[in-house]
Amino acid sequence: MPAMSKAQMDLTNQFLIAMPGMLDDTFAGSVIYLCEHNERGALGLVINKPIELDLNGLFEKVDLTLNRDDLQHAPVFFGGPVQTERGFVLHEKLDDEGGHYNATLQIPGGLEMTTSRDVLEALSHGAGPRKLLVTLGYSGWGAGQLEEEIGRNGWLNVDADPGLIFDTPVDQRYDKALALLGIDPRMLSQEAGHA
């Protein structure tokens, strides 16, 4: 019976916060926004690990011109180790007048994640979502894998706050995510322990 209750865990629209003792360098110090979590597994985007590419540079690589001054120097993020050549755009929900994009996952809680080029084309015309975060790659887990990692004290989770994604400086996102749980990062031990 316990395996069934684990399968029913749904962490969609939550942050995963890597515990300080995380041994996997790929995820050490990460805050991941979970876009989807169900019985088949989970998909999320790391929101606090910028790469050496800004949106202007990304648009040049895909033969588009970014016509949004507010986004010219916004960083592109390492979203995770899966499909690192593919872009993922996490953005605020568009109102009915804003239109919709071809490949958009509507995330319960109000955000959307788009993988189709049309969102980039909208941005190149000065339109598109006002608040967004672009990653290359995503983080993925198979069925039961994330639950197992949480059970081994690899991750903390908390309800997501869009302000942390879109309005908080990158270098403060880890600490601010922990603060959502009332945790001071200096109080966390590097060692996992069990009572």
Q: How is this structure best described in words?
A:
The protein has one domain: VC0467-like. It has helices at residues 2-7, 55-61, 118-124, 145-151, 162-166, 173-179; strands at residues 14-18, 31-38, 41-46, 50-54, 75-78, 82-92, 104-106, 111-114, 132-142, 155-159. The chain is α+β, with helices and mostly antiparallel strands and 195 residues long. Mean pLDDT is 89; it is low at 1-7. Strands 1, 2, 3, 4, 5, 6, 7, 8, 9 and 10 form a ten-stranded mixed beta sheet that branches.
Secondary-structure class: alpha+beta
Relevant CATH superfamily: VC0467-like
| Count of distinct strands | 10
Kindly state the mean pLDDT as a whole number? 89
Largest sheet: 10 strands, mixed
What fold name stands as the CATH topology?
VC0467-like
How much strand content do the residues show? Answer: 25-35%
Overall shape: it is globular
What is the tally of helical segments? Answer: 6
Number of domains: 1
List the helices and strands and how they pair.
Blueprint: H1 2-7, E1 14-18, E2 31-38, E3 41-46, E4 50-54, H2 55-61, E5 75-78, E6 82-92, E7 104-106, E8 111-114, H3 118-124, E9 132-142, H4 145-151, E10 155-159, H5 162-166, H6 173-179
